UniProtKB/TrEMBL annotation:
A 1,2-diacyl-sn-glycero-3-phospho-(1'-sn-glycerol) binds at R140. The keyword Lyase does not apply. GO terms for biological process: lipoprotein biosynthetic process. Catalyzes the transfer of the diacylglyceryl group from phosphatidylglycerol to the sulfhydryl group of the N-terminal cysteine of a prolipoprotein, the first step in the formation of mature lipoproteins. It is found in: Cell membrane. Pathway: Protein modification; lipoprotein biosynthesis (diacylglyceryl transfer). The gene is lgt. Keywords: Cell membrane, Lipoprotein, Membrane, Transferase, Transmembrane, Transmembrane helix. PROSITE patterns: LGT. This is Phosphatidylglycerol--prolipoprotein diacylglyceryl transferase. InterPro entries: Lgt. Belongs to the Lgt family. It is an enzyme of class 2 (transferase). Its EC number is 2.5.1.145.
Amino acid sequence: MLIPYPNINPVFFSILGIPIRWYGISYIAGILFSLEFSKKIMKTNPFIMSEEKVDELYIYGFWGVLLGGRIGYILFYDLYNYTNNPIGIIKIWHGGMSSHCGFIGVTIAICYFSIKNNFKILSISDRILVSVPVGLGLGRLANFVNQELIGRIASEDALFKIIYPNYGLPARYPSELFEAFGEGLFLFIIMFSIFKFHYIRIRRGVLTGVFLFAYGLVRVICENFRQPDSQVGFLYDGITMGQILSVPLCLTGLTIIAISTIKHNQSTLKVMDKL
């Protein structure tokens, strides 16, 4: 089925000649939603922290996403270009963020905040990551509006395909929409559904592990429909950089889930021994 491209202007509006793009708005909207959502679920039993502390955490998190995502994109996706054009490093409004390395930046921010305030790192990440898929989904929709990170050329019998105005024929997979659904709506439903179960919520690290594994798996799948960055191309027989970076996320997620489950079972046995 051929999906008509909506042809939305990437620039939402301008202020004094400065373009305000959907790309930037998606980041801001995602952060604001996650902030307000986190303030609510941080109070859910067991209580984690006050709203004031959540505000402080998100200041660190914002810089973690920004610096981690930008530095990661430069190192893994376009080092040659930025080495020859270093001024382009600060032009974030032109795009160029690595979601994988954005996670690393957020992880560092959460670790710093937790150690500074004597909080359990995984207790915080469990709550924060519930709402993160919303921001990821909005970011992919902004990619779609910008006609960037486009899909590969679609097969004749493809269920969904689209013609990007900037690229013309042949029709391609709407990979940004696949990722918006997988990384956004699908992952949010999974995380929020699991969070609603108290007996899982109290197992510190399970939600963090589920997020890392599920996100990595979704990326590995969706990368099969997405055209790899032109400056990187395919690696190792059709494998993309995004897939390679997703494997450690999946393995880390499974490891955290396993350790959390073992610790919970050991605690349960200790309680049973006292009965």
